[in-house]
Design a protein that fits this description.
Blueprint lengths: L3 H7 L13 H15 L6 E5 L4 H10 L4 E6 L2 H14 L1 H5 L1 E5 L3 H8 L6 E9 L10 E11 L5 E6 L10 E7 L3 E8 L9 E2 L9
Parallel strand pairs: 1-2, 1-4, 2-3, 4-5
Antiparallel strand pairs: 5-6, 6-7, 7-8, 8-9
Length: about 210
């Protein structure tokens, strides 16, 4: 499901300015679902791994001038191309975005980001393993969404805990088996031995 405020933003951002994918509608739908799963909203600080153009433009539209969008990219030439397209599409929105060139997302991100910088949401591309080292970049109650490749892969959503509210971190695994099914994996690092309980299906086409 795509949240109403995210769907509204999707109608504003000129996707044709960025996308060259053959199946544009599928890409748009998946992007909207992912941002909805992260619950990105006005004023949020968001970290996006890998420059694509449309996703970060959509995030910038959603968070507005009170929020921020930081994009890590491992390809300098592609990053410059996307930056130019962003300026051409919307100069004001481009001013609110920061593109950072890194050698790799994990070590490079932790090295080049400000030490006290934390994010409400982190969106990653497909990775070989779950990016545990990025969890320290989340604010209290912040969320990270990643796609993990391999036999034990799928989509994972990690929600940070909140010490003030005595809330522990949670992680959910979405198995890509034709429909998205949420599996509550319990509190990360906890002693809960209960079996995983499937929650309601979210979307039949995958994230």
């Amino acid at each position: 499901l795509i949240l109403p405020h995210i769907y509204t933003a999707m109608k504003v951002v000129p996707f044709h300015h960025f996308l060259i994918e053959d199946d544009t509608q599928t890409f748009l739908g998946r992007t909207g679902v992912k941002l909805s799963m992260l619950k990105i909203d006005v004023g949020h600080d968001v970290l996006v791994l890998e420059a694509h153009g449309y996703p970060e433009a959509l995030v910038s539209q959603i968070v507005g001038p009170m929020g921020s969008v930081t994009v890590l990219c491992t390809n300098q030439q592609f990053m410059k191309t996307i930056e130019a397209k962003m300026i051409e599409a919307d100069k004001e929105k481009a001013k609110r975005m920061e593109y950072i060139l890194v050698d790799d997302f994990i070590e490079g991100g932790n090295e080049k980001l400000l030490k006290d910088k934390r994010f409400d949401a982190i969106l990653t591309p497909i990775l070989p393993t779950f990016p545990e080292a990025l969890l320290n970049l989340l604010k209290d109650d912040g969320s990270l969404l990643t796609c993990v490749d391999g036999n034990h892969g799928g989509v994972f959503i990690h929600t940070a805990g909140n010490q003030r509210l005595k809330k522990r971190p949670e992680r959910r695994h979405i198995l890509e088996t034709g429909s998205i099914v949420f599996y509550q994996t319990g509190n990360v690092g906890g002693d809960d031995d209960d079996d995983d309980d499937p929650l309601d299906p979210l979307d039949q086409n995958g994230p």
